[in-house]
Amino acid sequence: MPEKLDKTWHLAKDAAEVKVTEFEFQVWRCFYGFLRWQEDCQRYACGDSLTGNELSLLHIIRMNDQPKTIYELSRLLNRDDPNNIQYSIGKLIEKGLVAKEKITPKVLHYRITKEGIKNTDTFCKARSAILVELFKKFDMDRLDVEKITEGLSAIKGIYDEASHLAAAYKKK
Hints:
Elements lengths: L14 H32 L5 H11 L7 H8 L4 H13 L3 E5 L5 E5 L1 H24 L7 H24 L4
Antiparallel strand pairs: 1-2
Helix pairs in contact: 1-5, 2-4
């Protein structure tokens, strides 16, 4: 990449802002690439269209084969939009992939159905054949996925703290 590129814009006016903005720009691109991959894999494997948000919920609901509440799903995915989560779960219920389950009298849980297990198993096979194989071909010594995962977890903590600060304090 040429060294003389002007990387300043409204989010990046000095060297520190350029570094953070370049990182965030790649996070956006990675995030949307990830969602597109998930949706394309679902279409390829299962022949149906689920959004990336619906797929994340479907796979998290199946995680550890334990039913989950809206609260648990929110926490596991670091989301704070329970109405949108409920809407997506409603779509998964309509497709027969998820079912409601009342484990306690006051709290509704969501569990994967047999059709949901079949769907996620099919997705998993396609994911392994395509994505995991690509990761294996990549220079895994150069791309330390475990360190990247740890770094992303730390960076998520920075964004969480920044979000708390922005929500708690008013600008003077």
